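During the reporting period the student researcher (J.K.) took over the structure-prediction task from the postdoctoral fellow and processed the backlog of single-chain submissions. One of the processed entries is reproduced below for the supervisory committee.
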Amino acid sequence: MNIEIVLFFLLTSIFVCYCVIHLLAVRGLTSLAVQQKESSDVQPPISVVIAARNEESNIGKCLQSIIRQNYPAERFEMIVVDDRSTDGTAAIVTNYQLAHPSVRLVRIENISSDLPPKKNALNEGIRQSRFDFLAFTDADCVASQDWLSCLAREFTPDVGVVAGYSPMEQYFPGTMIARWGDSFLRYLEIKNSIGAAAATGLRASYLCTGRNLAYRKSVFSEVGGFEKIKHSISGDDDLFIQLVQKKTRWNIRYMLSTKSYVETKPPLSVRAFVNQRKRHFSAAKYYPARMKFIFGLIHVYSGLALLMLIVYPLIGILALAGKLTIDGVLFYKGTTIFGNKRLLRWLAPLEIASVLYNLVIGPLGFFGSFSWKEVKS
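J.K. obtained the following structure tokens:
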């Protein structure tokens, strides 16, 4: 049999699976909007936990954004866990603590557990928190003024975890290359959020970001804290939410309101970006087999579509056209929720760049080394 015919039918079979996955994701986003019609009008007390290491240039803005929340001041506290910082992070938090009694500084001088550094810092913050509802963000993030209010509305009695979107802050440098890099970062972030939100809508949560996350302390205790996921230097967010999905009966919500966003600073160099993404990918090696299969199928089809452009151009053009069409359907639905529809104009080059990025950085995350706050993997 002609090799072109074999390849055509092989790619067609994989493409059918690719379509099913993406159309299920569209259904998940639609279901999520329906689920969110139910909300809570209670304003529970919330402990905001922030792990910080050498964040003197960021922690002030982060605390200011939380202090200014449209939420009763007496109903939330801020716990900054200073994880062995060697700069002025602790001094800045101490100054805020003097002016705002709701701010608390917890200092870690030495790691006394077998948890990875960030999980250890978060664990200590949780241990010293006063309230059952826990909210998390990073020290280089800025929360919208209604962040805590949006979180509180999601916590109906059956909800144990609430996740949200964390876009890159507005950053428009002058050069064309830098602008392209900025758009690419936004594209990756929206794609991840679309997948996370869609899976939550299908009640199969697998991904979230610790920059915009909340859960009950009782849920944390129920799954044994970070003990079962301590083997990964990262994963205090995605591996944790997978644990809740698998081990408990709690429902998980994903916030859709633009008022719930928590902005983060983008990596400002290629080296910082690669290191960050290798760390993010590293947790995926511990994902369940079915999820690895789904992601593997998506990446295999995308990679083959590009390869066929070189080997068998006609098949490659058809495969790539089909891929971009179904990608566009999901991305349009996602950007209707999360914004940035302007990226739709550049879907083809951004998605091709994303495929190449996954093919290169993905394996490095699985098998390569990386560092986080001077800690080597």
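The committee noted the following: The first helix runs from residue 3 to 35.
J.K. will present the remaining backlog at the next meeting.
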